[in-house]
Amino acid sequence: MSECNANLGDDVQILEVRSNQDDSQINSEQTPSHITEKFFSEVPFSSKCSAAWQQFKKGHGPKTGFAQCKHCSKVLKTSGGSTKGLLSHLLSAHQIVIPTTSTQSSKRQRTEPSLDTFFAPSSKLEATEMIVRLVCLDGLPLIAFEKSKDLRRLMNRAWFNVPKSHNTITAKLIEYCDNIKKLMKAEFEELFKSEKRVSITMDEWSSISRKRFMNVNAHGENGKTWNLGLCLINGRATAENCYETFKNFLLTFGISIRCHVVAATTDGPTVMKKMRRYLECEHQECQLHGIQLGIKDVFYVKKSKDKDDTIEDPDSANLIDYLYEADQDSEETESDEEPEADNEISVDLTYHQLTSLIESSPLKLSPSVKAVVGKVRATVRKYRKSPLKDEVLQSYIKADHGKPKALVLDVKTRWSSLCTMLDTFLKVFTQIMKAQIDITTMPNLKDTAINFSDDERQAIGDICDVLDIIKAGVDAIGRAKSDLKIAELVAKFTIVRLSDIQDNPIAKVMLPKFKERYNARRTELSDIAMYFHDPASYEGDTRLLQLTLESLYERLTSTPELSAGTDADSDRTRNLALTETQTTGRATDKIQQRTAGESSKRNNKADLYEFLNEKASPAEVSQEVSTRITLKMEMNCFKQSGIKGKTLEFLDSAVRTVRPSSIEPERTFSTAGRTQTKIRNRMGPKLLDAIVVLRYYLRSKKQ
């Protein structure tokens, strides 16, 4: 047995030496037959293997990388699985030709697709659209097209040349935006020809480069919206200047405020309220802003300026001053030790005292809310500032909820963040208490437990119940397809839900404030919308409603004046009209002198026929009387049968364009704020306007 192993070792060494030589063929006669048969085996037929292996045996073990010919028993080297040597041996020694139709050969012959095959030849317009999408939708900075070699190489593969300067790209964006605005103007012309009208939402905004802009949005039926862009306000933002800027901006789109705009929706600043005196259309104040003021009336008490009304009780201090004192998020550190001010929270008012306080003074709720919310905020701040404490808390949250859940800190300017903070706190309240026990027992942390009684937990739940109802209503009013009818129905739903939980002391205070703030911004347009929704259940004065509809119809059907010329243009037009009048007057005098002799010869018969024609003809009905009669008839028919006439259909279509909130300009300002950042603060007004308009246009087109 040892002799056989020695002979086997000698054979392996001989094969290894010969494999390193240039001649890859080894004479199988020098190899013992029992060794050859032992280390070579048949290759099973497979579509994945080359057909050459059917003429050879494949080696394994010490013979791995070799093949033995079935015809002459020669051993050939097949390094890396290559069959090139096998095919050459079959052709030269045995005149056998194996066609290269196997999978491996076809893979070898198949060429990899080049990058050009992924891009079809593009025109210049498609190239511009691609750049517009990259800049406006994806937020790619213009300098990237100039500096990024990889981006330029990739886009050059798409069969068009990228401009080498970002100024050229800026010009292309502005030109593309101007073309889109021309399409909008043509769309408005077709809309007005089909007897449709639009409404406007607008607001004022100051950019990071200290420039004032006005965003204007036009709204049609069924949630159709056109973002007209950002208009630069030159000079002071007074009511007169804002109105002139707004009027001239709409005229560039062929929109007349008096004839084409049903109403303009704005928020409640003083300058927007003063603009109401200049507007030639209806004015609707933002209902969402009014709801926010109602929430502030309940949860945030303002400091009194009168000395006699000074609050003596220290617990009655302003909730804002308490919740947002000294340590803000920007000043938070990662220290594991908490300040003493956060650990020593004294609560002087219980939930039962809060209820009695509401009964005595409904508007003094904020000091009581302050104690409960202040403790929640101190607890959230404690875990947000310390990674070690938050790690302990998240371990319990993952074990119970299956995934981490971060605590949320409310923001001073957003009341909805208060609801989010309290709701998240209640969901992980049990885990917070468990983590608090572990943290207080840690020797390296000096922490004081913040405990919550059952009454305090119920107070937090009551706040969440009230804010959840209002938050659902705000989300519904703020939708793109929301109109005055939806706002009215949402307000009724909110009032009913708040009335159902009057055992909740916070809801008892919130209900009258909600009604007060909502009704303060309610206009006659809301009555019209509810009348068209259900005329049978309309509870208002029908005569007053008819007069309102008549006035609105006469204004919207009047002849538009779409001239936005200068004073010089007005003077020139006035002079041309005067010259034409004088020329016509002189011609008329000559005709009268020539016919004076003939008119005196008129006989009594002609005078009689003229008298009869004048007195016997039916009296003409004025347009005002005709509109009043038509409206009265159509309103009676609509109340009885539910069928709207042509006039009521026109007015219903017009009123459905009015938006109850000015949330659309706020969305535009968010986009503009993300576009013009501190890094891109030198962006010009035209480029900023183009990006805002094109982003909204492309997103709406995609949807």
Describe the structure using short key phrases.
extended; 703 residues; five-stranded mixed β-sheet; alpha+beta; 30 helices; 10 strands; five-stranded antiparallel β-sheet; disordered N terminus
SSE blueprint:
Blueprint: H1 2-19, E1 25-26, H2 33-39, E2 40-42, E3 56-59, E4 66-69, E5 75-77, H3 84-93, H4 103-109, H5 124-136, H6 143-147, H7 149-156, H8 166-193, E6 198-206, E7 212-219, E8 225-232, H9 239-251, H10 257-260, E9 261-266, H11 270-275, E10 282-285, H12 287-299, H13 319-323, H14 340-343, H15 351-360, H16 366-385, H17 387-401, H18 415-427, H19 429-440, H20 454-477, H21 484-500, H22 505-520, H23 524-533, H24 542-556, H25 567-599, H26 604-616, H27 623-641, H28 646-655, H29 663-675, H30 685-702
Parallel strand pairs: 6-9, 9-10
Antiparallel strand pairs: 1-5, 2-3, 3-4, 4-5, 6-7, 7-8
Helix pairs in contact: 5-30, 8-30, 12-22, 16-17, 17-19, 18-20, 20-21, 20-22, 21-22, 24-27, 29-30
Low-confidence stretches: 1-35, 102-110, 115-121, 304-365, 565-584
Report how far apart the termini are. 82 Å
Structural class estimated from helices and strands = alpha+beta
- Strand neighbour order, sheet with most strands: 1-5-4-3-2
Mean pLDDT: 76
The dominant shape is extended
Major sheet summary line: 5 strands, antiparallel
Report the helical percentage.
55-70%
Provide an overview of this structure.
There is one protein chain. With 703 residues, this protein is of the alpha+beta class. Helices cover 57% and strands 7% of the residues. The chain is built from 30 helices and ten strands. The protein has helices spanning 2-19, 33-39, 84-93, 103-109, 124-136, 143-147, 149-156, 166-193, 239-251, 257-260, 270-275, 287-299, 319-323, 340-343, 351-360, 366-385, 387-401, 415-427, 429-440, 454-477, 484-500, 505-520, 524-533, 542-556, 567-599, 604-616, 623-641, 646-655, 663-675, 685-702, and strands at 25-26, 40-42, 56-59, 66-69, 75-77, 198-206, 212-219, 225-232, 261-266, 282-285. Strands 1-5-4-3-2 form a five-stranded antiparallel sheet. Strands 8-7-6-9-10 form a five-stranded mixed sheet, with helices on both faces. The radius of gyration is 42 Å and the shape is extended. It starts with a helix and ends with a helix. Mean pLDDT is 76; it is low at 1-35, 102-110, 115-121, 304-365 and 565-584.
